[in-house]
Design a protein that fits this description.
GO terms for molecular function: [protein-PII] uridylyltransferase activity; phosphoric diester hydrolase activity. InterPro entries: ACT-like_dom_sf (IPR045865), ACT_dom (IPR002912), HD/PDEase_dom (IPR003607), HD_domain (IPR006674), NT_sf (IPR043519), PII_UdlTrfase/GS_AdlTrfase (IPR013546), UTase/UR (IPR010043). By secondary structure, this protein is α+β, with helices and mostly antiparallel strands. Helix content is 50%, strand content 14%. It folds into four domains: 158 residues, Beta Polymerase, domain 2; 120 residues, Four Helix Bundle (Hemerythrin (Met), subunit A) (Up-down Bundle), CATH 1.20.120; 164 residues, Hypothetical protein af1432; 192 residues, no CATH class. It has 30 helices and 18 strands. A hairpin with a 2-residue loop joins strand 10 and strand 11. Helix 10 crosses helix 11, helix 12 runs parallel beside helix 14 and helix 17 crosses helix 23.
Amino acid sequence: MVAADDLVRARKQLLDGGSRSRRLDTVALRQALVDLHEFWLTTKGAELGIKPDSGFAIVAVGGLGRRELLPYSDLDLVLLHDDLDPAVVSEVADRLWYPLWDAHIKLDHSVRTVPQALQVASSDLTAALGLLEARHIAGDVELSNLLIGGVRRQWRTGIRSRFDELVEQSRARWARSGEIAHRAEPDIKNGRGGLRDIQLLSALAIAQLTDAVPGLGPQTPGGGLAFAHERLLDVRTELHRVAGRGRDQLRAQDADEIGAALRIGDRFDLARMLSDSARTISYSVDVGLRTAGNALPRRGLSRLRRVPVRRPLDEGVVEHAGEVVLARDAKPNKDPGLIMRVAAAAAQTGMPISASTLNRLSDSAPELREPWPKEALDDLLVLLGSGRNTIAVIEALDRTGLWGRLLPEWGAIRDLPPRDAVHTWTVDRHLVETAAYASGFTTRVSRPDLLVLGALLHDIGKGRGGDHSLVGAELANQIGNRLGLWPSDVAVLSAMVRYHLLLPETATRRDLDDPATVRMVAEALGGDTVLLELLYALAEADSLATGPGVWGDWKSSLIRELVRRCRMVMAGEHLPTPDPIDPEHAALAADGGVHVLLQPAEGAHTYTVTVVAPDTPGLLSDAAGVLALHSLRVLSASLGSHEGAAVNSFTVAPRFGAPPQAGLLRQELIRAISGELDLVAMLEAKENQALAEQALERGAEGVPVQYAQAPPRIIWFDTQVDGQVILELRAEDRLGLLCRLASVLERHGADIRWARVSTLGSSVVDAFCLHLGDTDSRVTREEFEEAMLAVVPAPRPRTGEGAEDGVTEGGAG
């Protein structure tokens, strides 16, 4: 038998191609390799008698089967026969395989009948996935069709029992090979977001569980899934050509050459392109697996619900089959804030946004007006304050073009590779990681909203040239105005971005014992203690999001000491103070009786509810409880008194629909004051029912625990009035939290003189002025703290850097 030397020579000629200007590009090279091998196999097959009606067929799998043959790919072939004489089969197989072996061509081969091949596919998942790509090359086409059709029918009918194994095999592969988007030397074939994942999507499509190319919307960065697939193929093709052998892992020393050959640029440009493509594929796989899983019969408790329930989450947003989707009456083309409500609901519940919902929003949702409505900003803050859930939601928005529509400045940093090896993530992912870490520190600061916004934007100036802190400060100013922040808050946000490196660089490079060092920092920050505490929390979040070991005891102790000394120089904190009472409300208070006013507020979905009633114990908890039971979320509150009457004003937002009539709220409040309603118990039941429904819908085995991202924090301020203190609580929100807190304070004998309540995204900063009489002692304060911490969401158990328990502090007036 003559070796396949002619095939080897032809392959070499294709790969050499003469000068660089004359050699084939990657697409043409792959096609030429496919044509060459098909020609050789059909010619050799005809020579061996492998013809129509011969009972033999040559079937290609792998790269040749997919028509994606790379320069040094293995040749994966199956010799099919129609249960012929073993001696004849052996002779034909030897005459087909030996020339390839003798020519040192890598060959993965098998000889099977159709039933044998189907048996292998039924018992070996890897073999089944390979045979799903089978393609007839030469010989008896009917025999090949029997195999191809049989394998696909078998795959479709058996996918229910094999789906879990398929998912587990994919996850194990990702764990071994890592993410292409965030790896210095990625595995183009096996890494998450690689070519194996394209084959996974194809297998799910053949099983009729999902579309092989999930829609990503018209504004998808990078050109969508098909283009991402093509680009990865091009990189792997050029990798083979550069390495001179089969290779899947892109080495750093080859990146510049490959980038130049593909006319992409240098290794950083290549890394950016790979990140974009891999993240597009990863998102598509997430959608494909989720869609496929929902198409299969449910298991466990979720089987009890034959038809998934549509549970309202927000105005125009519902949960359906474990995904966040649009309500049937939602009008995305007339509701600019719907994108942010969907995102906030997904982040809060931890559920993914339906791909069809994202596509519909991408197709028809209008631009948010500038400045943003307050409701949209609040939803953005909820999204950013949701910890690790934030990452998947922003990734989904970004892959479908929606995030770039909300933040056009994001395009310059999308998939931008870090220039410093210490960074784990691309710049855009680093910002999202920083925001996720910062959400765990929101109770350390008085402005949690500015902390998460600053975390999201602190490196927004990268990728544009110049000092990224200076460039970013200008962009932060632009973005803050667009978001509708107050001018003073825009200035603080811009300063956070401008000085986000000031504390770590000063603490680790300057002499802290030198008074000039501390004075320099204090002057740079304008003596602003709020900005100082924001930068302190941001420095830790930024370090934790950079990579392992960047935030340690040495660095944290130096920054902590610098901040302590700066606070001493800046000196003093301002006490919370009550808001003035509206003269109209004062007149109602003088008239006596119970009054409830409901008026539209500045936002399209916000209202002001004013309660004027005799100032009796329990009134605040009753009023807040009635609002919570009617699904009115308290965004802010100002609580005071006038001539023996309480004057409490609440800014509220209905979770969905329109608010109830003021008359109904008044009737319910009167019932609560008279003791007919146990509001705390009713709130507890409503919250547990919602959690139980969510757990059952998602297949959980019980009611989940409601955790917070950040540990709650209580700060005490002494005042100059005997027996009077100010208590400030920083925590995460929950259903009826103000009602629960007021009930605790009233139950423990505190007289609430006034209060200021602020809900910033998912965080609350509540200040209560309390008269404690003769009970003002450390023991009494500890009892208050214990009772209040029992009704706020507990911090999620965490280990490692950044973990922290609930905190209480004292302050001075």
